[in-house]
Amino acid sequence: MNYTQQIQDSMDEFKAFAENLKKGVENLASSGEVKLAQTEKELVYEDGKRKLYRYQARTEKICPVPTLIVYAMVNRYTMLDLQPDRSMIRNLLDQGQDVYLIDWGYADRMDRHLTMDDLINAFMDDCIDHIRMQHQLEAINLLGVCQGGTFSAIYSALHPEKVKNLITMVAPIDFETNDSLLYVWSKAMDVDLLIDAYGIVPGDLMNQSYQMLQPFTLTFQKYLNMVDTMADSEKLAAFLRMESWIFDSPDQPGEVLRQNAKDLFQENKLVKGEFEIGGQLVDLKQVSMPVLCIYADYDTLVPPASSKKLLEYVGTKDKQELSYPVGHVGMFVSGKTQSTLAPRISEWLNQRI
Amino acid sequence: MQDFFKQQADWLKTWQEQQQTLTKQYAAWGEGLAQAAPGDSSQQVPGNFEELVKAQQELFEQFTGFGQQMQQNLQQLWGDKLPSELLRQFNFNLLQEFYKSWLGNMKFPGGLSNPFMPGQNWTDPASFMNDFMKNEHPFFSTFSNFNIAEEVQKVFGMFGMLQGGKMPGGDLFSQLFTTYQGFFNQLANTGTSKGFDQLLETFTSWKDQADQYLLAPQVGINRETAQEFSKITSLSLAYIEAFAKMGKLIEETARKSGNRFQAKLVERSLNNDPPVKFTDFCSLWTKENEAVFIEVFGSEGFAKTQADLASAGLRLKIQTDKLVEKMIDQTPIALKRDVDLAAGEIIQLKRDLRQSRKQQAALETECKIARDAVAAGEERFEQMEAALAKAQALAENAEKTAKAAVAADEERFKQMEATLAKVQALAENAEKKAKAEVARPGKSVKGAAAPKEAATAATKKTPAAAGKKASTTTTKKAATTAATKASGNKKSSGSQTK
To answer: Which of B94, B161, B273 to mutate to test the interface with A (most CBs of A within 10 A)?
Structure first.
């Protein structure tokens, strides 16, 4: 290609860029409120800020064993239901699953003394008991996402009789690896000082750490690329929904973060069999129900090495792993997972009812 | 009362004098250290601590000011047009840090080779970017139909508008570049290469000595407050030191990433594949810089530097919070620690409440089990009573039957006795008749014996009469035994029902 052509291409690109930007600004001005998590659901149980929802069925034939989704506390569950055509929850409902979900809410100063024991042995247990009672079942399915996957694995080890099947998705279990910058950084942090200084650790502080994982891409390139798509109002709306989710980071209850960071990230106690909550030692060998471990091959937040190690430590013989060539967030919104992830999960569950 | 106020005023005056003395001492140490620093202190090292802080402060202000200006412009331009939620999505806090990094490394050492104009190397980012975009330069001289500078201005202007930086009637692109150049100059003068190292070394040495004084025990009625303030000063110095170390690391990394980016630019140009498109250029810039930064970010050295910086900031925050709380302790405003204490108590109460509820639920379950057991016992007892009643009725029936049987036997026995008596009477009569016949003269002996035989035969014809007393006793006993047996059997069957 000669220089004239190159320059012509460059000029064309500038013109297109300028036109996209002009149109995009117009679209921004008329885009209105950014709405996420629109799938219909009903509040069935609550304890203060923490709530349990049941999603409205979308099929006639419903799986007799309901599935409780436990999301992370560091972000909002809305990622699982970002928009109608990018919704893992909706896909599970379409597969006939009966879906419940825990919403941890937005922690504030009153939650600074909240512990993992309060969350796992109290609220999670109450939710699971509520569902068991409503359905007259001994045990239900548990699907833990990211940090919620860690919580679910811990719960399953402590209360195996209440969990029919366990699924973990991009869940950090083994913290020995240094494949993620977060794992490296957290090992050097003075966690006690952080918690003592803040009590409730601001969500924005966590977000800054996430942005530093790809400092140039996430603070500059992303917004430059946005110009290419913002002329299309649908794509712009999708971008804004994702943007809204990314920065919708609840503050973290200090004591939960303290134990999470010190006992798990720094000392890796869970896989060593030394992790303790509420005076109980958590032994992953007690996880006796079937386990499906799902992880993302290109996950920079929770590296695969951290997730799939779960299968080495659980007591069950019925264990399986499933991976996708996507990143952490891509697991829930990528086109690669939309059509196959929920059916695979559903099939695995249905075979074990 | 007046004496009290006078006393207060005197204390305050004394405290102020102490602070002034301290300040003078700090300044004197700073001067001394600056003089003692190697090299030409007037060129490389600020004369005293004030200047050092001032230089750092100016740098901070510029970066902070840049972000604030962006934010302010955004508000001015879009505040009345866009939803507040959308406005909040534009966060410039980190942008300014990375602009800093970018600009910090863009003084191209030795110049960036210009493949189109040998001998006229690009020496800094501004000239490179200007050349990249201006049509006067030979790089763009092959066409002249468009005024590319204007196009670029439009593009950046619009992009700036998007990010909120376009001032009405202003040219954001120019403003940005002017500001960049200001940052760059400031960094070059105060925060890069050799000067940076010396600055940090001198500062650290000064801080160590200052700490000895700052953290020493103090005297006087305001000693506690003075001590707290001194501690804040000390922690501030520690924070500046940690920040400078991080700045040094970022500056070094930015230099490396800049070199890598430049090398890639040259490489692609030499391969006849220069990034002529704006998006290509930016993508390359992002990719090459990020690769270097992520490598450094993944090192233990960075993790430690980052942790040290965070810790220094957190210690300063804790101390500042403590002092602020102390200052407002006498006001009716609830303190953070009060809220924390209340929160702790509330959450403990909630735990206790949940525990009580669980215990109550367990007790209710136990009570229900006990109530169910009692109900089941009562029901069984009733069943047993009914069974017993039935058994008793059966036993009574059996007894009646037995008694009837006995009565019937007795009746029969009486009949038999009567029959026997009749038979005996007949026999006796017959015997008498026989004896009378025998005694009557002329009657044969044979004839006399016949009535006796007849009596014997009659006795034989009636078996019950054989041993009649014994027979009577036996029959009575048999009836009693039958009655008893019947009664016993019924009782036994009643027990089984139970």
So the answer is: B94
